[in-house]
Amino acid sequence: MDLIPTTPLLCFSCLFIVFCMSYSVEVEVAVAPNNTAITTIPVNVGMVLDLDMWVGKLGLSCFNMALSDFYSNHSDYRTRLVLNTRDSKGDVVGAAAAALDLIKSTQVQAIIGPEDSVQANFIIDVGNKARVPIISFSATSPSLSSIRRPYFFRATHNDSSQVKAISAIIQAFGWREAVPIYIDNEFGEGVIPYLFDALEEINVRIPYRSVISPVATDQEIEEELHKLTTKQTRVFIVHMTPILGSRLFDIAKEVGLISEGYVWIMTNGMTNLWSWMGHSDMESLQGVLGVRNYVPKSKELESFKVRWKRKFLQDNPSMVNAELDIFGLWAYDAAFALAMAVEKLSNANFSFEEPKAVGSARTDLESLGISQNGPKLIQALSSTRFKGLHGKFEFVNGQLEPSVFQIVNVIGNGEKAIGFWTSKYGLVKKLNFTNLTGYSTSRANLGTIMWPGDSHSAPKCKRLKIGVPVRKEFKEFVGVPPGSSPNSRVNPTGYSIDVFEAVMNAMPYAVHYDFYAFVSTDGEDIGTYNDLIDQVFYGKYDAAAGDISIIANRSLYVDFTLPYIASDVVMVVPIKNNSNTNALVFLEPLTGDLWVMSACFFVFIGFVIWVLEHRISEDFRGPPSHQVGTSLWFSFTTLVFAHRNDLIENSSPLVSKIVLHSREEERVVSNLSRFVVIIWCFVVLILTQSYTASLTSLLTVKQLKPTVTDVNELLKTGENVAIKKGSYFGGFVRQLNFNSANVKTFNTTDVLDELFTKGSANGGIAAAFMETPSVNSFLDKYCMKYTTAGPTIKTGGFGFVSL
Ligand SMILES: *[C@@H]1O[C@H](CO)[C@@H](O)[C@H](O)[C@H]1NC(C)=O
Ligand SMILES: *[C@@H]1O[C@H](CO)[C@@H](O)[C@H](O)[C@H]1NC(C)=O
Ligand SMILES: *[C@@H]1O[C@H](CO)[C@@H](O)[C@H](O)[C@H]1NC(C)=O
Ligand SMILES: *[C@@H]1O[C@H](CO)[C@@H](O)[C@H](O)[C@H]1NC(C)=O
Ligand SMILES: *[C@@H]1O[C@H](CO)[C@@H](O)[C@H](O)[C@H]1NC(C)=O
Ligand SMILES: *[C@@H]1O[C@H](CO)[C@@H](O)[C@H](O)[C@H]1NC(C)=O
Ligand SMILES: *[C@@H]1O[C@H](CO)[C@@H](O)[C@H](O)[C@H]1NC(C)=O
Ligand SMILES: *[C@@H]1O[C@H](CO)[C@@H](O)[C@H](O)[C@H]1NC(C)=O
Ligand SMILES: *[C@@H]1O[C@H](CO)[C@@H](O)[C@H](O)[C@H]1NC(C)=O
């Protein structure tokens, strides 16, 4: 009884167990082929970093974490990157040797690193030769990339992408000058040409460049900074590595350059590595602005930050303050990109082609193999796209495209984000572009900034000092109110000043300036225009405005604008005295010959008409005296009246009466004589018209005839001439062979008039040399007495002066 129920139960149980076992075996069988089918291919990659340095440590830890994250998510991938790490020991040669060793002995498919741009240069060339891609997440110098270096990939942005952000800040505050301070190596110099271009575009001058050696002592840095204190520029752009940069700022603080009125802007070379600098260094950075790459917040990023910190502290227990920064993210994303690209090549043969002539090879370089997969790998890398921790990851021309820069202001122990810069919209307060149109460089788009020296107002751009000459005469050009002192602003008037102000207002940006009179402390004119130009050259004034002639000699010292008014040097002479006008002036229009000829023709025509008419016309008959009289009277009337009866009939009754009466008797009848009369009338017409014209011009022009028409006349007679006191063309006048004793000077137009009145014989002058604008105002006053004469000497015109 007992057995019966148990047997089926037992059987059932056994069956169940067997079923279960067989099921579980089935499950295992299903799993097994999956696991055994994947035999992973190890792929060697190298890494060359300064493992003593922050970026090296950070890069290594992030890269390793990236690989383990990547393969735990993509366990089905056939390839596995195997990292071979070499320490470059912060040395260019060390980095080069490490790279060569990795390629030769380990046959790495790609090299990550090196850390900085200086080490990168040689390694990139080695990579190009061996066809091994070099992927750097921290070498940012723009000079590294080139189309001749297809094996270089920059898993970061090049430095030149931020220069527009810096120039936008400078433009926002209207500063006119900036001095770049940069480290003297590949990293420092790479960005400088781009910075210059960007600043030039917005018309910011770079009066000076401050280059600091990577191995400079504190003393040398101090000397360099002392030089900066003597310059007028107050805006500095620092492009350095954080170590040298924080030393520089410490010394700048001591020298007094981090104080009110100064502006310091750091490139991302320092700002990106903020956390590393630690809080102790913040003291000398108060009020400094910085530009850095912006990483949008994301959940993945936050969780990675926490995981990374835990892991990093395990490995480096001493670095408690370490914070993940953007170089870590770039390293992390670069690892993903490389792993993805290598997986695309999983069917490839990962060995190296042996160099051709191994036997004779003496150096490492000659015996370098060539990676068979190089070309395929760079293609795979170029086409790799994904959303990385730092944002979109995609190589464009072998480097990442920058998106947004953040602008920060150092305050207290931290930094305050005051705005963003994007290439499309310029400066923006928030990254919400819905309402934005166009590129903005408005100051309003930046948050409040605390400037160095705890100042809350933005350091102003320097007001330009414009020197103006003081003239007692010709104030039409520059009129300075009398009694001006040299150190206070003046409000000059006049044409030159009007032009200057109009030009300044038309500038695309605001320029602030003040006018200063070029006078001594007691308000006296202290020099010539050359002296004023010397003062611009010596830096007392930034520019000079006035009726300043553009001359070759002056342009050796200063810069001129284009001329705003033409000016020539001309000779001014008195007008010939015309008071004893010739009573016979009416004879002058025609020469004696012509008078005689006219008289002869007059008689001749009378004779011809008489010959032709006296037989047929009653009028030409009678006693001989009457005949002679009629003929001459006839020729004379043709001189005065036209021979057209209808014209006479149409004119006023009185005229026609007189004329008709006088002409009643001698009407020509023969056609021949009519022909003669027509010709005679024509000759008469020309004669009378030219007589009238000549007489008119004689009577008017004669009034304005100069006493002297030529310089040679003056030289021949040894007359005196005058030039304005301090005018530049004294030398030129002497070149015309005037004896220096014959060259006098005048300071006012009244003095000039007096000299002219005296006359050369009495110590006065016969002529003066002046510039046309002055001549015009002189003749305005004395137009009845003087005129210009002789040659016109072309000059450059009047321009404004700046250094
Ligand atoms: C086996 O691998 C394939 C892809 O290679 C995957 O789709 C499948 O889920 C795996 N099976 C198991 C049981 O893991
Ligand atoms: C791994 O995959 C999971 C699920 O697809 C995803 O949520 C996670 O972000 C991935 N991790 C990494 C590091 O990509
Ligand atoms: C640097 O990056 C910018 C932005 O991506 C790019 O336009 C420029 O061509 C790059 N310069 C060099 C030298 O690669
Ligand atoms: C890979 O290439 C090397 C040299 O070309 C050759 O010796 C080797 O047999 C290849 N291996 C495979 C698996 O094809
Ligand atoms: C952007 O601004 C618009 C209004 O201008 C607002 O409607 C929108 O929600 C904002 N977007 C974000 C992401 O803040
Ligand atoms: C966007 O523009 C609209 C219309 O000009 C305006 O009403 C709105 O306030 C703006 N929004 C923001 C956030 O500036
Ligand atoms: C040339 O110009 C300079 C600057 O104004 C001046 O100091 C110098 O005397 C001039 N030389 C001559 C020969 O005019
Ligand atoms: C012209 O002659 C008159 C009288 O002869 C004299 O009074 C006058 O001063 C002279 N003018 C000049 C410019 O010589
Ligand atoms: C012009 O020069 C004379 C001496 O040469 C001097 O007495 C006079 O004050 C000067 N006039 C002006 C306006 O400078």
Automatic annotation (TrEMBL):
GO terms for molecular function: ligand-gated monoatomic ion channel activity. Residues 463-802 form the Ionotropic glutamate receptor C-terminal domain. The chain crosses the membrane at residues 594-612, 672-691. One of its GO terms (cellular component) is membrane. Residues 1-22 form the signal peptide. Glutamate-gated receptor that probably acts as non-selective cation channel. Belongs to the glutamate-gated ion channel (TC 1.A.10.1) family. This is Glutamate receptor.
